[in-house]
Amino acid sequence: AGSQPSQLTLDPPWTPVFTPEKVMLTCRGSGAPGPTKWYIDQQLQQQITSSYIYVSKNYLGSGSYQCCSPGAELSPPITLRFSNDWLVLQVPARVLLEGDTVPLRCRA
């Protein structure tokens, strides 16, 4: 049996993100010591000791994020998009399956 994939979560868990806001991405894995690798659009961006990063429109920005915690495999992606529209319909930034109830959030 191979190692399990890293788990990547978004807080707050909604997308798209309003342009002035920032979100926190957290990477969880096996708990082994060592740096966490962060990828944007399948390109290694940074390798840091922290298991979380903050993302805003001006820092790292839009893209498909993945992480790899020590002792675990690459996480499934979370796609972040920033919007400066005056009205935004937000959906959960998680995998949805057919038959799932989908909460929606309207922000102005």
UniProtKB/TrEMBL annotation:
Q: Which UniProt keywords apply?
A: Disulfide bond, Signal
Q: Which InterPro entries match?
A: Ig-like_dom (IPR007110), Ig-like_dom_sf (IPR036179), Ig-like_fold (IPR013783), Ig_Fc_receptor (IPR050488)
| UniProt keyword annotation of ATP-binding present | no
Q: Which PROSITE patterns match?
A: IG_LIKE (PS50835)
**Cellular component GO terms, alphabetical:** external side of plasma membrane
Q: Which residues form the Ig-like domain?
A: 5-79
Which terms under GO biological process does the entry name?
Answer: cell surface receptor signaling pathway; immune response
For this UniProt entry, the molecular function terms from Gene Ontology, in alphabetical order, are:
transmembrane signaling receptor activity
PANTHER family in the cross-refs: FC RECEPTOR-LIKE PROTEIN 4, IMMUNOGLOBULIN FC RECEPTOR
Its name, as the record gives it, is: FCGR3 protein
Which organism does this record belong to?
Aramus guarauna (Limpkin)
Identify the gene encoding this protein.
Fcgr3
